[in-house]
Specification:
Elements (H helix, E strand, L loop, with lengths): L19 E9 L5 E11 L4 H11 L5 E2 L2 E3 L12 E3 L13 E2 L4 H18 L6 H16 L3 E3 L1 H6 L2 H5 L9 E3 L6 E3 L12 E3 L12 H13 L3 E5 L19 H13 L11 E7 L5 H5 L1 H29 L16 H12 L4 H12 L4 E3 L10 H5 L6 E6 L1 H8 L3 E4 L2 H10 L7 E4 H15 L3 E4 H6 L24 E9 L4 E2 L4 E2 L1 H21 L5 H10 L2 E6 L1 H7 L7 H29 L5 H20 L23 H21 L13 H6 L14 E5 L5 E5 L3 H7 L4 H12 L12 H6 L4 H10 L12 H4 L1 H6 L5 H5 L5 H4 L4 H12 L34 H11 L10 E4 L5 H13 L4 E6 L17 H12 L5 E2 L24 E6 L2 E9 L5 E8 L5 H18 L4 H8 L8 E4 L6 E2 L2 H14 L43 E2 L42 E3 L10 H12 L15 E4 L2 E4 L10
Parallel strand pairs: 10-11, 11-12, 12-14, 14-17, 18-21, 24-25
Antiparallel strand pairs: 1-2, 3-6, 4-5, 7-18, 8-9, 10-18, 13-33, 15-16, 17-25, 19-20, 22-23, 26-32, 27-28, 27-30, 28-29, 30-31, 34-35
């Protein structure tokens, strides 16, 4: 093939135009300890420190690089392309410990990658001449150095190690197909054929130990995780729980095996990093275990909450019991609760918290032995904590496969069939329809999917019909699964290697135009790289090696779309952005297919092309139709129609290029066929996005307007998003206006000119010039002004001697020096905005409101930001790109914490209707490991405490209701009107459908209930009817509904469990518990008994509402037996009638967890509880304010609030369906 020199020029060296620099790379834990350090590494001068750190920490080969190399002669291979090996003779004089070292220069990495690709390309005839091979090598070295493109992580880990350094190792059980003979061959070593593929899909059969079975899958997964790759599998072939086994007995079910595989994946690290194994688990919606699978992670997250809460309560209450044993008069028996009232109360409190009785008894025995404190290990909700390691389901992304039939059943409220796997197999062999093992309502299953996604962010949805209608090779079977990030979707036992182009590098900011020629050139070169990578690769099994050779799927994509749109001044949520996204993706996709056809002309098509030719050309024609945005009826064999490129909103040059490439790709394909079955995906570009210094990944928008850039010597500085100034300039703002706006966002970084808090006001408080100078030095990198005013910046001696603070005050994390010095909250906030900036453009000087959408980000920006991109906008931009992608798009739709289950349903339904192949949703705060502390823009905990204290200091803590609320117990029945209001609520508990119907008096008070069950004639239904009559009679005789609620809520019997169909109540302990929860929420406003609070009440008919006619008599011949006056607390909780309240002020309840220190000399280790017990006990409440504050800061900076498991930093951002750390580059994905 002919290769042009467009980027590197005619020079022999690709680096002549590039300036390089020596750097030091240090990655530290939050506590300052060093995670990684490397000095004097060489990188391009234009690279950021983060990109430098990623390359040095993750991609440099750390060992085995010889100090002296020699060429290995190979016939027909140009000398400059020959492989290298250690020159042992030349290294004889070097000490053994110094003969081998690590890579320290980025050019070593670029050379081994580009050299290895060129070597294999030359060896198998991909270049017309040696000059073409040289141009290919130089162009790729240049693009890597200039951050124009990057391959997936396994390429950086593995490619070229044998070619460049002669590194080898024992075979790991891999296979490859010889590119010359086509013979399947077992690898003889680990690196001659590298493993460059990031994405794998592996089949699993319903077999326990044989090849291709369940246990064999864990071995195959381990081979992939070891080299930094990810894998996905569809487990629908495995029998469900209680299905018959061939040897007798019943199957243990799918979930038991999924839990084994999950623990196996969690134990494996990949690529020499601490990245968790990347894995996708997929299940068809007709599997008999589908309901348990959908709720798997919800239950596991609840287990974590149980462990965390239970362990802390055990510590508190058991220590209180021990302490109470020593708080008694010496003449009384301290261990007899009848004599020791303190012990009786401690035991009572422990029992109320459900502490096991034998543990209470056990610690009393320990107290008799002299033990005065025990320590039970407590758990926390950190992702890496023992609590999460204890439960399953945490090492994979989970998805369900939804067909069009299921989605239509949801729309039509139809039934959905579940099938035994054995029955499906038999029915297929016998040519008949399978018999369902269970029938459920499609909407009930849909409800469970939405609730689980709302509660724990899993499962994601994969739209099976849409995926297979765009399948290029249906003769090979259906597409059933995907890789971990959902972008690669093809046949089982195939693999895909990824690469991404940095779109911003092809945009000329000065000319405000996109370089289409350069973009096309890069697309062509990287398509060839990915094709060569299939040729040179080894694979973890025979099947994957053979099928990857037969289909040769590729995964070319792009990154930085969000930044490109902002650069051009185009809102992410706009018709223009959709059109540009479609055009750029269309050029990428169709030019890559054109290159594939060009290779097919010279090298031949992929082996399975002929049997799939017509299907593949049909798909290519549909791609082309989307470029021309034809009417729906022109598409071939599609049931869900794609979103085409809207000519009205697309720049003319991009539209023309996209349509030209579509025509060219189809024309070449019809003449020569294609070399590759698939060519494109949109990958999450996690780590490689950081190496390319991308602000955004894939099709994601930016996560923040103000970035904290890392400095080479450590620390950070604030900088406005690099896309913001060019966007403002393009929209017509002057340099001065842009300067003012940037200062509004990033702050002035100085107290000079600051209102309220400035050098003058500080000097009046006693600050010296030296101290103020020290403060000024710390301000440019500060996130909040309060954090600069601490004992470390000001000096402990100055704080104590001059300002008069005590050690206790200075050591208290919540201590606010500025506030204590007399500055008001308003002054501090005003100074903070001036010095540190608002981190948002909302309210910025000069900025017109119509331009706000250009700068919208994935989440709210800063403390004051209110704008963020809606979920629908994310879905629409995915839909704009999807018609021009062979695979799919790795993307998570972020929703705010207040998103409802209905919002989850809407997002999944819209994704299906717009032709997206897969989608995952993440509601902020849905994970325990991402605490809900920081998602709101409310005042700080300190401010809330102040306001609460101010409220409580007012004379009356109880507000007396103006009207008298009188509850009468009357002798005669109050009749309901003949025509009455009420409502009907349907719900499903377990297998029981229940209809609750109510009847109200004119004033809205509940007067009767009816309970209908779906089983006609059943004894249980009759009992419920009688029960409803009894309750109705009680209500009509004046028994308050509150009394019934208190009596029957929390009763426990079957049916119980998950409630489907009720917007407020999602779990119940019994049918009676559900009924009175529903009535309490609706009539009494008892939201404490609901699981989901509603923004607006469904009804407004409280039991104690006042009659609209004051003088109207509700009763005839009434006889008052008793009446009570109710005082209502300050908050809006409904009044309780089971206690009499007086006008006396209510004393606050003392915290039972606080206790004074007690002393003892006895220490017992490894006692009966398996815990440590010491004599001196100081029981303290855990103060989480510091941790919460840090997470809140992270959220305001645009991060997710999660903690990086590798470096411990709070710099995690959403990345496709995964998370990545922008400090160390750690990612849970496979790119």
């Amino acid at each position: 093939m002919k290769i042009d020199r467009l980027f590197a020029g005619e020079s022999n060296s690709p680096y002549d135009k590039i300036e390089f620099d020596k750097r030091t790379s240090v990655i530290r834990n939050p506590d300052g300890s060093i995670v990684f350090e490397m000095i004097d590494i060489v990188v391009p001068k234009a690279w950021s420190q983060v990109a430098t750190d990623i390359l040095a920490q993750k991609y440099f080969r750390k060992a085995g690089v010889p100090k002296v190399l020699k060429r290995v002669h190979e016939d027909g291979m140009p000398v400059w392309l020959q492989a290298s090996a250690p020159d042992l003779d030349a290294m004889k004089d070097i000490s053994e410990t110094e003969r081998y070292t690590s890579e320290t220069d980025c050019r070593q990495v670029f050379n081994r990658l580009a050299g290895c690709w060129t070597y294999w390309g030359w060896k198998h005839g991909y270049f017309n001449t040696e000059e073409d091979a040289s141009a290919f090598y130089n162009e790729h070295c240049y693009m890597l150095a200039m951050q124009m493109a990057a391959p997936n992580s396994p390429q950086w880990f593995n490619t070229g190690l044998n070619w460049a350094y002669g590194i080898s190792g024992p075979s790991q059980g891999h296979y490859y197909v010889d590119g010359t003979t086509g013979v399947l061959t077992q690898s003889q070593d680990a690196y001659t054929h590298p493993q460059p593929h990031a994405c794998f899909i592996q089949s699993v059969s319903d077999d326990l130990v044989n090849e291709g079975g369940i246990m064999d899958l864990w071995v195959r997964e381990a081979r992939l995780f070891k080299y930094g790759s990810g894998t996905g599998s569809n487990f629908s072939n495995i029998r469900g729980s209680s299905e018959p086994l061939s040897g007798g007995g019943r199957s243990s079910g799918l979930m038991s095996f999924l839990k084994i595989g999950d623990r196996s994946a969690g134990a494996i690290k990949s690529g020499g990093t601490t990245r968790r194994a990347a894995k996708m688990v997929t299940l068809d919606l007709d599997h008999p275990d589908i309901e348990e699978y959908i709720n798997w992670k919800v239950v596991e997250e609840q287990k974590v909450a149980d462990l965390v809460t239970g362990s802390k309560l055990m510590n508190i209450h058991l220590n209180n019991v021990i302490k109470a044993c020593y708080e008694v008069h010496p003449e009384n028996d301290p261990y007899d609760k009848k004599q020791n009232k303190h012990l009786a109360k401690a035991i009572s409190d422990a029992r109320k918290s459900l502490i096991p009785e034998n543990y209470i008894d056990r610690v009393i025995h320990l107290a008799k032995l002299g033990v005065k404190e025990i320590h039970i290990p407590t758990y926390d909700t950190d992702w890496n904590s023992e609590a999460y390691l204890t439960v399953s389901g945490q090492n994979s992304n989970n998805s369900v496969r939804a067909t069009n039939e299921f989605m239509k059943a949801v729309e039509n409220d139809g039934l959905w069939n579940l099938y035994w796997r054995i029955e499906l197999s038999k029915a297929k062999k016998e040519g008949r329809d399978p018999v369902a093992c269970k029938k459920i309502k499609a909407r009930d299953l849909w409800e469970q999917i939405a609730y689980s996604a709302w509660a724990c962010a899993d499962p994601g949805m994969q739209y099976h019909t849409t995926i297979n209608e765009w399948h290029t090779c249906p003769a090979g079977g259906e597409i059933k699964a995907s890789n971990p990030c959902s972008e690669y979707m093809f046949l089982d036992d195939t693999a895909c290697n990824l690469a991404s182009l940095n779109l911003v590098k092809f945009h000329n900011t000065e000319k405000a135009e996109f370089d289409i020629a350069a973009y096309r050139h890069a697309v062509r070169l990287w398509t060839i790289v990915l094709e060569i990578s299939v040729l040179m690769a080894q694979f973890p099994s025979k099947e994957i090696a053979r099928l990857s050779y037969d289909y040769r799927t590729l995964g070319l994509g792009y990154a930085n779309l969000g930044a490109l749109l902002m650069l051009q001044g185009i809102p992410y949520d706009s018709s223009e952005s959709l059109a540009i996204t479609g055009a750029l993706t269309g050029i990428l996709h169709m030019h890559s297919y054109a290159t594939s056809a060009e290779m097919a002309k010279e090298l031949g098509t992929f082996p399975r092309f002929k049997e799939n030719e017509q299907s593949m050309l049909r798909v290519i024609r549909n791609h082309r139709r989307a470029a021309y945005n034809v009417p729906n009826e022109e598409y071939e064999a599609l049931s869900i129609f794609p979103v085409g490129i809207n000519k009205k909103y697309c720049p003319a040059d991009l539209l023309k290029a996209a349509r030209e490439d579509a025509d060219h790709a189809l024309d070449l394909g019809e003449r020569y066929g294609y070399r590759n079955a698939q060519v494109t995906v949109i990958a999450p570009t996690g780590t490689i996005g950081l190496v390319m210094d991308c602000d955004t990944t894939g099709v994601e928008p930016d996560f923040a307007l103000v970035k904290f850039k890392k400095l080479a010597g450590g620390g950070y500085f604030k900088i406005i998003n690099e896309s913001v100034p060019p966007a403002l300039k393009k929209m017509g703002y002057t340099e001065n206006e842009i300067h003012d706006l940037i200062k509004y966002c990033t702050g002035h970084g100085s107290l000079i000119g600051c209102p309220g808090i400035n050098p003058q006001s500080l000097q009046e408080k006693g600050f010296t010039t030296d101290v103020i100078t020290q403060v000024e030095k710390s301000l440019p990198a500060a996130f909040d002004i309060s954090f600069v005013f601490n004992k470390y910046t000001l000096g402990a001696d100055f704080c104590k001697d001059t300002l008069g603070f005590t050690d206790e005050q200075l050591d208290d994390y919540s201590f606010n020096i500025l506030k204590t010095l007399g500055f008001t909250r308003e002054q501090i906030e005003e100074a903070n905005d001036y010095v540190c900036g608002t981190m948002t453009v909302e309210g910025a000087p000069h900025l017109r409101e119509e331009h706000y959408p250009v700068f919208d980000c994935a989440s709210k920006c800063g403390k004051k930001g209110t704008r963020f991109i809606s979920a629908d906008a994310h879905i629409k931009i995915m839909a704009a790109a999807q018609p021009f992608i062979s695979g799919a798009i790795s993307k998570t739709i972020n929703l705010p914490n207040e998103a409802t289950i209905e919002d989850m349903k809407h997002a999944y339904l819209l994704s299906w209707k717009l032709g997206i192949k897969a989608n995952a949703l993440y509601r902020d705060g849905s994970k325990l490991s991402q605490p809900l502390n920081s998602v709101s823009g409310e005042d700080s905990f300190e401010n809330e405490t102040e306001e609460l204290a101010e409220t409580m200091s007012k004379p009356n803590d109880i507000i007396r209701i103006a009207e008298r609320i009188i509850h009468r117990y009357i002798a005669k029945r109050r009749k309901l009107p003949f025509r009455r209001r009420g409502y009907t609520q349907k719900a499903k508990i377990g297998t029981h459908s229940v209809y609750l119907r109510t009847g109200d008096y004119e004033n809205g008070q509940l007067g009767e209930i009816f309970i209908d069950m779906h089983r006609e004639g059943a004894a249980f239904r009759s009992l419920m009817n009688c029960f409803a009559i009894a309750v109705s009679l009680g209500l009509q005789h004046g028994v308050p509904l509150e009394e019934f609620v208190d009596a029957f809520v929390y009763t426990r019997f079957e049916p119980n469990g998950i409630v489907i169909g009720n917007p407020n109540i999602k779990m119940t302990t019994s049918l009676i518990d559900y009924i009175f929860r529903e009535l309490a929420v609706t009539y009494l406003g008892r939201n404490d008994l609901s699981h989901i609070s509603q923004d607006t009440e469904m009804r407004t008919s409280p039991i104690d509402s006042i009659s609209k006619l004051d003088n109207e008599t509700d009763y005839e011949d009434e006889e008052i037996y008793s009446e009570r006056f109710i005082d209502e607390p300050v908050n809006n909780n409904p009044p309780r009638v089971d206690h009499f309240l007086t006008n006396q002020p209510v004393k606050p309840v003392q915290n039972s967890t606080q206790g004074a220190s007690v002393s003892s000399q006895q220490t017992i280790s490894g006692g009966p509880l398996g815990i440590q017990m010491t004599g001196a006990a100081t029981i303290k409440n855990v103060n989480l304010s510091e941790e919460k504050d840090k997470i809140k800061q992270a959220k305001q900076k645009g991060y997710t609030g999660d903690i990086c498991q590798s470096c411990g930093s709070l710099t995690m951002v959403r990345n496709g369906t995964c998370l990545k750390c922008i400090t160390c580059g750690d990612t849970s994905g496979c790119s």
